[in-house]
Design goal:
The complex is a heterodimer of chains A (309) and B (498). Chain A is mainly α. Chain A has helices at 2-29, 34-37, 44-54, 60-72, 86-121, 126-140, 143-157, 169-199, 202-210, 214-225, 227-243, 246-251, 257-266, 270-298. In chain B, strands 1, 8, 9, 10, 11, 12, 13, 16 and 17 form a 9-stranded mixed β-sheet that branches. In chain B, strands 4-5-7-6 form a 4-stranded antiparallel β-sheet, covered by helices on one side. In chain B, a hairpin with a 5-residue loop joins β2 and β3 (70-72). Classes of the chains: A mainly alpha (309), B alpha+beta (498).
Chain lengths: 309, 498
């Protein structure tokens, strides 16, 4: 177990480092924020002077080394656009991202898994025909469109929910539905496939023959045995919900990390973008790691040994 | 099929009941901005969204009235001691929000702060002509420029006066997060990424603000800003596109507030590289553009066609400069004469520019016999190329230029003067004229120089003026306010109609 953990940690650090290095270089290849900051009409000398003041005239490897040194001191640097410590800018957004992602996750798991189970168990019945369109809609509606439709209906038309912002619990409802829609469909599909596969196995027939009631079979045995693909998907989906809310956050003016990422990329606010990429890649790595541990808990036959291959 | 039915139904319900409850008069004005202010320290950022917020917290040395004239604010009067020295008389009845009086020392501190290279203000280029600022009397401040600089007052419209003692005490980070000035509204809170809240400063020296408080929300998506207006969540918003403006015209509870700005929509034409190095090709391009069609069809009339690369809102704008009327036949003839039929014209652009305009221009130029190749890159890359060597900049590109100073000096100087990063053109006679216009503070003389300079630009066509850009705001019908050419957002000037 220890060897496994160490190997896994080393691999994770390498992955995060690789992502950071790529983002660092690619962002700088397409120009720095100096030209976006100065007024139109600033002379070349004035632009160069500001660029030197901001440190963007240095070679990229020097800037990267400097950044790594900043990270080593457990700092994330300063935003040249907002003139504030980056940790502060990013930290303000984390609660909003967490709030939206957890609500969206609750919706997608809370609806997706039951729908998946129901459509597998009652295959070919009215239940399936009633529920599959829901999955299809979640799967195929682009969020920039479903978001606007939700706003038009519940915000402008019926006036039940605020049209944008993040002020109260009602604010999160529409963004969470728009964001959770796709995840919900994914959970439903994976659960359905997994449950259907398990339902066809011999042990199910055996337990049923023993006289165990069908709901107990499904909930206690089938779901547990079919959980591995669902857990794998869950790890990816949580990471996606954390990182992939860019469009939803733009449509609903939700002040999360996705919105911050877009605005910072547009403004070439390198330090903020780097911090977000760092956090998101760490989240991905950690969630996948948690999923690996969970496999062992779900299926005792899986043992974590040695380094990852 | 079923799904389509459901959504059509939902949409119909939404539209039928749109905009049910509009609150009556509100104490707090709710403003939707497309971006959050980057900073509230007025010496760091002056992007439109930051500017919309902090101009309400601070007073500036001078300001512009509704007609665009430079008028007193913190400075009650000024006189030129010499062409390089202006003496300002500072009002003595202004107090910062903490009750301390605004003094000449605060003015000098503000000038020194923004002009200190170590402070890294992106606005430095607007103020770096100032050599020295010092207090010369109990209510007098002297600004000394390196050379005569006639645009100084226009630049000082953007100089917010900050409280020296407070800034020094709290430090730059805290001041940025919790700014304090002497303006009609005091800072209340900043929920970053969400909203900034300001409240009325009843002790304001120009009187009690009619609107009691303001919140500025950060709402990036235009459709959402409009939904907020319709649902009554927002009272006013900016950056409405002409298409949406047309749709909003039928909303009885809302109104459009367009303002002709100092932004000039122009076409840059590279005079130093490629087919457009031939002046006949450049003139042909000028003849090929149907400005009226552009303004009417693309901007729904929200724009004013112009013949020069300058708007009527800028000092130095002159009428009576000859123009190139829309004449495709003449354009074709000129291109034939230059032997440039079918020549490839690279059109550099970025997503920051209106791509419908780019495509319309491409079509217009194709029709007179040029082969236009659109070269799209991200904005920083575009800027790098556009400001690079003549062979990197492409043959043409669109621009929407604003110097924030409403003066010809801030427009045709950086765009066309020899040696400027933007210029792909050089004419010593033009340079001499705009240099002369910059070296005197005599307004009549300056106007004459600019009229001559614009005539040379007409001859040489290193750029083609297309239209004066209109900024479009939308607001609740009851809001009384008229936006101005400077795109300033003074809540103090607004009130609710009874």
């Amino acid at each position: 177990m220890t060897r496994y953990l160490l190997g896994r940690a080393a691999q994770s650090v390498l992955a995060v480092f690789g992502v950071m290095a790529i983002v660092f270089v690619v962002m700088r290849l397409s120009g720095d924020p100096t030209l976006l900051l100065v007024p139109e009409g600033a002379t070349r000398e004035q632009v160069d002077a500001l660029r030197a003041q901001l440190g963007f005239d240095r070679p990229i490897p020097v800037q990267f080394a400097d950044y790594l040194w900043t990270l080593c001191r457990l700092d994330l640097g300063e935003s040249v656009v907002q003139r504030l410590p980056v940790w502060r800018i990013v930290a303000e957004r984390i609660p909003y991202t967490g709030w939206l992602a957890s609500t969206a996750l609750a919706i997608s798991v809370g609806i997706g898994i039951p729908v998946g189970v129901a459509t597998a168990v009652w295959r070919g019945t009215l239940v399936e025909r009633a529920l599959m369109p829901l999955v299809l809609v979640g799967q195929s509606m682009p969020t920039f469109w479903s978001g606007i439709l939700l706003i038009m209906l519940f915000g402008v038309g019926l006036g039940w929910l605020p049209t944008s912002g993040a002020d109260e619990w009602r604010s999160v409802v529409m963004p969470a539905i728009a964001l959770g829609g796709l995840s919900m469909a994914t959970f439903a599909r994976i659960t359905r496939t997994s449950v259907m596969e398990e339902l066809g196995k011999d042990y199910v027939r055996a337990i049923r023959a023993k006289g165990v009631a069908r709901p107990v079979v499904v909930l206690r045995h089938v779901l547990r045995n079919g959980a591995i693909p669902i857990v794998t998907i869950a790890a990816l989906e949580i990471a996606n919900l954390l990182a992939g809310a860019v469009i939803v956050e733009t449509v609903f003016a939700w002040p999360g990390m996705g919105q911050l990422a877009v605005q910072s990329i547009q403004a070439r606010d390198f330090m903020v973008v780097q911090a977000i990429v760092l956090l998101v890649s760490i989240a991905y790595v950690l969630l996948n790691f948690v999923a690996d541990i969970l496999y062992g808990a779900i299926d005792p036959r899986i043992r974590l040994r040695g380094g990852p291959r | 099929m079923h799904r389509n039915g459901i959504f059509a139904g939902a949409l119909a319900v939404a539209l039928a009941t749109a905009g049910v409850a509009f609150a009556q008069q509100k104490d707090v004005l709710s403003v939707d901005l497309p971006g959050q202010p980057a900073t509230l320290d007025p010496h760091i950022q002056w992007d439109t969204d930051s500017y919309h917020v902090y101009r309400n917290i601070f007073d500036n040395l001078v300001t512009r009235d509704a007609s665009g004239k430079i008028v007193p604010q913190v400075a009650s009067a000024w006189t030129y001691r010499s062409p390089t020295e202006i003496e300002f008389t500072i009002r003595s009845d202004i107090r910062f929000h903490d009750g301390t009086p605004l003094t000449p020392e605060d003015v000098v501190f503000s000038v020194r702060r923004i002009t200190d290279p170590a402070f890294r203000s992106p606005q430095l280029s607007q103020f770096d002509s100032i050599r020295e600022a010092r207090v010369v009397g109990p209510d007098k401040v002297l600004l000394v420029t390196a050379r005569p600089y006639p645009v100084l007052l226009a630049q000082l419209v953007k100089l917010s006066i900050v409280p020296k003692a407070h800034v020094e005490r709290v430090g730059p980070e805290k001041f940025n997060l919790e700014p304090m000035g002497s303006g009609p509204y005091r800072f209340a809170s900043w929920q970053r990424g969400v909203r900034v809240t300001l409240e009325a400063n009843d002790a304001y020296w120009r009187g009690k603000p009619s609107i009691r408080g303001v919140t500025f929300q950060n709402v990036a998506d235009e459709a959402t800003r409009i939904a907020n207006l319709k649902s009554g969540r927002a009272d006013v918003t900016r950056a409405i596109s002409p298409d949406q403006a047309q749709a909003l015209k039928s909303e009885a509870r809302l109104k459009l507030l367009p303002a002709a700005t100092e932004r000039i929509g122009y076409l840059f034409v590279n005079a130093q590289w490629g087919p457009t190095a031939d002046v006949r090709v450049r003139r042909a391009i000028a003849h090929a553009l149907d400005r009226k069609l552009i303004v009417d069809a693309l901007y729904g009339g929200f724009g004013t066609p112009v013949d020069v690369v300058l708007t009527p809102a800028n000092f130095g704008y002159a009428t009576g400069i000859p123009s190139y009327p829309f004449d495709p036949a003449k354009a074709r003839a000129l291109i034939k004469e230059a032997g440039a039929e079918g020549a490839e014209i690279p059109f550099t652009t970025s997503p920051a520019y209106d791509q419908r305009l780019v495509q319309a221009l491409q079509q217009m130029l194709q029709e007179v016999g040029l082969k236009v190749a659109i070269r799209m890159t991200d904005h920083p890359t575009f800027l790098k190329r556009r400001q690079g060597n003549p062979d990197e900049a492409g043959s043409i590109s669109t621009g929407l230029w604003s110097c924030g100073c409403q003066d010809a000096d801030g427009v045709i100087n950086p765009l066309f003067r020899t040696g400027s990063a933007w210029a792909k053109y050089s004419n010593p006679r033009f340079d001499a004229l705009i240099d002369a216009a910059r070296a005197t503070i005599d307004e009549k003389e300056r106007l004459a120089h600019y009229a001559d300079a614009l005539r040379i630009l007409h001859e040489d066509v290193p750029g083609v003026g297309m239209f004066q850009y209109h900024a479009i705001y939308a607001a609740r019908r009851e809001l009384q306010w008229q936006p101005t050419a400077g795109e300033s957002f003074h809540v103090f000037d607004m009130k609710w109609q009874n």
